[in-house]
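Today's session is about reading a structure prediction critically. Students often jump straight to the picture, but the first step is always the sequence itself: look for stretches that repeat, for charged clusters, for runs of hydrophobic residues. Only then move on to the predicted structure, which in these notes is written as discrete structure tokens rather than atom positions. Here is the chain we will use throughout the hour.
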Amino acid sequence: AMIKSSAVSAFLRPVGRNVAAACRPNIATSTVNRRNFHVSRVANVQATDKLSSGASISGGSLTKEQLMEEVKRLPIADISAIAKYYNKEEVQEKQKIYPSYAGLIKHRFRVMAEVTVSKIFPAGFGWQAASVQAGNLGYEANSLGFFAITGAGDFAGVLIGHTLFMAGKKAAGFDVDMRAQAETGFLLGSAAFCSGFTWQPTLNALQEIGLSFNQSVVGVGAACALAFFGGLRACRTVYSPFMGGVEEPTYQNLKADAQLSVAIGGATGCFVGTDVSYGDANWLRGVVGIEDGTADMVGQVLAGSSTALGFAVTQTAQNVAMTKGKCWVD
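Below is the predicted structure for this chain, in token form.
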């Protein structure tokens, strides 16, 4: 079988790692069309169209076996260059899905809406529900038990919300790998535990030193964004070896994780708006403030609405400002 261009990148990456020590500079340059891997110039190959291995080139195309033999003779620098070329090609192919700016923006806001409904609202809802239970169990808002329980509520909200949403899409006829999606939900929920755990002690500390409402929004959002990002990167490392739905840490998903974490920072910062102790300085009080005597379920809906609002505002800025192929939702 001939090597297709879409498979070359995945094929070359392990080759580059495994045969680097055996590489020798026998192939100078190669080019690819959309059908087959074509050779434009092979060192030491004359008009007879013979490869360095002695095999003939059929129609200018290499079989997988021939390609393997030739790649073994490449220096590691050439292998890296070819792999980078195909990574770039994959990005360009993905970008063709959204040929117009309007199509790109539509896609970004659709993904944003899905994430908000399936994970961000449930995270705030779950945190608030867990805080009620923590209070019923006698934990004060400055105790380690309270922090852990509310973090667990964040985790449960994200995991359950994501899994149920994806199950709904599958039931509606979409092609969804539920095992992979459950593992993705577990990854994101684990990161949400870190930010959920961090939220209350950070707010306590900022209030203790007398920061204003606006300063607290920024401070809490920044701390939770860092906690989410750190948790997400650590969990990628831990989960990816045994969870097929979790991608191992790479530079590409590093950038995507960082952008998502910024949006999470917006969500957790806006969550400060549920705290009415700031009085009139809390300009979100009339929108998401949880007043004394508010029913538990209403408070949970307000909490989820606050995180949804903060995420939507922050992600909207990314959607509009970032160029094609640069935003994590692309």
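Discussion point for the tutorial: Residues 1-48 have pLDDT under 50 and may be disordered.
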